[in-house]
Amino acid sequence: MDPSVLLLLAVLLSLFLLLVRGHAKIHGHLPPGPRPLPLLGNLLQMDRGGLLKCFIHLQEKHGDVFTVHLGPRPVVVLCGTQTIREALVNNAEAFSGRGTIAAAQLVMQDYGIFFSSGERWKTLRRFSLATMKEFGMGKRSVEERIKEEAQCLVEELKKYQGAPLDPTFFFQCVTANIICSIVFGERFDYTDEQFLRLLNLMYQIYSLLRSFSCQMFELFSGLLKYFPGVHRQIAKNQQEILNFITHRVEKHRASLDPSEPRDFIDTYLLRMEKEKSNHNTEFHHQNLMMSVLSLFFAGTETTSTTLCCGFLLMLMYPHVAGKVQKEIDQVIGSHRLPTLDDRTKMPYTDAVIHEIQRFSDIVPTGAPHRVTKDTMFRGYLLPKNTEVYPILSSALHDPQYFEQPDSFNPDHFLDANGALKKSEAFLPFSTGKRICLGESIARNELFLFFTSILQNFSVASPVASKDIDLTPKESGIGKIPPTYQICFLAR
User: Fold this and answer.
1) What residues contact residue 50 under an 8 Å CB cut-off, 6+ apart?
2) Could you say which residues bind heme here (predicted)?
3) What span, in angstroms and rounded, lies between the C-alpha atoms of 307 and 298?
4) Of the candidates 298, 281, 202, which has an alpha carbon nearest to the alpha carbon of residue 242?
């Protein structure tokens, strides 16, 4: 037998023995699920179409709560609106830990807002919420920033004079600039080379994280991290973004005015200085870097992807776009900018945006959680540190709440009188203690960007609406819509 094959078998056997020992220490009573194979876990039940398809198939057989082994590690999967809410809301503290996204955590580790848990996470989240509120999230100033960016976008789109274009780049630019203005204190021109490089790096990371290769890495990261693969490219891209952030932090440090902090970084640096004598402080350089990286990534890709999905749907359902424009004309007209105050007077438009988020389902498996203590849940004992996947897609497509869960239909969010109807199953930002930090900003961006574009343009497709393909380009822990061409025609 080839020596390299023998070596690989020896490594696998060693890992297997370690895992057997580790499993012997696990206590508790996990929910039932498909029978795992030693080391491989439930690899044979994995669908080439992604983890989501696998989980939905297993839900049909095992119910709303089951255990699946991603390689050697057991993960408890939660499906359905009531199940997810019972865990993340009714047992919020117990389910507030962060689970593993192996490919991203090679660099992030357990630092920053997104990947930390326990007191570190609570401290950073409190600080981040207060600071983002100070620099835009809860003030009208963020509305002004979004309106300014929307006008920049409109002027840019006018230059194309209705010629077909891929909107992905422009939606990345506008959403990235909003978070940049809060975190870095400035926006970037759409032709700025450094800005364009950052957008490209983030889009690559986003695509790689959602690839089938990356899902396989999640299953066997303990072994595969020593070999070439997508995780190496993700780590390389993350490091390049961190180099940019480091440069920005040093510029902020050199020009910092303690009496007038300009943005998130300034405020964090002042807190670092205040707590420099506290050896146990969470306000140190590592948490700053990883928090900014988390904010920059999360504040850009998810909202821009939703906008991409939204306008693809408008091409496929032109009558919906027409009804939105009719409401825009009635409430806003053509001589002023949309404002957030308009939203309450535009129930149909608001319902369309909600349905875009529901139907697009861009983070279907949700961010992984981890229980912070031994937890009884629906008759099962989940030992401390058990990983939990709340499948948000199962709520967004819950037939108990949505009459046509697999169809795009804004009536899902309208009552009999045409008013906006809220739904417990509307969980695109997740729920509970780890609900998306930037939910308010994202909701404001979606409304103002969506209405500003449709106020100024009609949209058309170079291909017939019946030929438009909604199949995601990638569908792993998140979905990426297919690339497409759209014509923005001046109204």
Assistant:
1) 212, 215, 475, 476
2) 436
3) 14
4) 202
pTM of the full structure: 0.91
According to DSSP, the β-strands at 369-370 and 97-98 are: antiparallel
| 136 band by pLDDT with thresholds 50, 70 and 90 | low
What DSSP line would sit under 149-199, residue for residue?
HHHHHHHHHHTTTT--B-THHHHHHHHHHHHHHHHTS----TT-HHHHHHH
Q: By C-alpha distance, which of 114, 133, 239, 251 is closest to 186?
A: 251
Range 324-328, long-range pairs (CB < 8 A, 24+ positions): 324/348, 324/349, 324/352, 324/450, 324/451, 324/454, 325/454, 325/455, 325/458, 325/491, 328/451, 328/454, 328/455
Does the annotation flag 436 for ligand binding?
yes
The Cα 226–Cα 168 span in angstroms is: 34
**For residue range 268-301, what is the model confidence (pLDDT) as tens digits?**
999 999 999 998 999 999 999 999 999 888 878 8
pLDDT given at position 6: 43
